[in-house]
Design a protein that fits this description.
CATH topology: L-arginine/glycine Amidinotransferase, Chain A
Strand content: 15-25%
Number of domains: 1
Shape: globular
Helix content: 10-25%
Structural class: alpha/beta
Order of helices and strands: EHEEEHEEEHEEEEEEHEHE
CATH architecture: 5-stranded Propeller
CATH class: Alpha Beta
Number of helices: 5
Strand order of the largest sheet: 2-1-15
């Protein structure tokens, strides 16, 4: 990690409202909120241990999905983009997130009626791969391009099927490598990168998070962890069992950027 620059991780704790979260691909299960909160604290502690300054936003007890801060903001090197989530229940999350990010970046907003979830945006250098999913539409992709292109970014759409977001099935793990589940995305759209397939039997393992040179992955995918380590990656695992009941993954509970 470049110690001459600060790394900030914006997070927000879950609340009792998480039991009413939006679900698309999972059946609703009881969530132990106390355990979810403990797991979230451990997740934040992991980010801090890896060198990030954790900026925990105030809880939003009336907004069930507010813990998934990634979906409402895409932070690039010179601009923070406040999205317009595909689930209407999530749009009230934007104001407090935008207020926090104004301390670090100029802020621009995706305009209605476009839909864009940050979980569908994967940044690799100056390329923004963006999933066309149930939460992100063509207008949302166009809005991302409108805002990001003047800053030198290229936007490339990727069809997503079978999972919630692009990052549910595709994440950057360093050295030009993407960890992917080809069954859930159009892998041809990301072929310019080196693709690393998740092992059979671990389809949900592709959602990871890079903090410096370390890959943060959810507990429960030992074959994927072993694969990444064979490829020279340093991997930290965190227990997300209760949060995964709300369709969480490694990346969705933080927005990480350098300042």
């Amino acid at each position: 990690m470049n110690r001459s620059r600060r790394v900030v991780a914006v997070t927000r704790p879950p609340t009792e409202a998480l039991a009413r979260c939006e679900l698309t691909h999972l059946d609703r299960q009881p969530i132990d909120i106390a355990l979810a909160l403990a797991q979230h604290r451990a997740y934040e502690a992991c980010l801090a241990r890896l060198g990030a300054e954790v900026m925990s936003l105030p809880p939003e007890p009336d907004l069930p999905d507010a813990v998934f801060v990634e979906d409402v903001a895409v932070v690039l090197d010179r601009v923070a983009i406040i999205t317009r989530p595909g689930a209407p229940s999530r749009r009230r999350e934007r104001a407090s997130t935008a207020a926090a990010l104004k301390a670090f970046r100029s802020v621009q907003h995706v305009a209605a009626p476009a839909m864009l979830d940050g979980g569908d945006v994967l940044c690799v250098g100056k390329v923004l791969y963006v999933g066309r999913s149930t939460r992100t539409d063509a207008a949302g992709i166009a809005e991302l391009e409108r805002i990001a292109a003047p800053f030198g970014y290229v936007v490339r759409p990727v069809a997503v099927t079978g999972c919630l977001h692009l990052k549910s099935a595709c994440s950057y793990v360093g050295d030009g490598m993407l960890l992917v589940n080809r069954n859930w995305i159009d892998a041809a759209a990301v072929q310019e990168e080196q693709l690393v397939d998740v092992p059979p039997g671990e389809p949900h393992a592709a959602n990871t998070l890079m903090v410096g040179d370390t890959v943060v992955a959810a507990v429960g995918f030992p074959r994927t962890v072993a694969l990444l380590e064979r490829l020279g990656r340093t991997v930290e695992t965190v227990e997300l069992s209760e949060l995964r009941k709300a369709e969480a993954g490694g990346s969705c509970m933080s927005v990480i950027f350098e300042v």
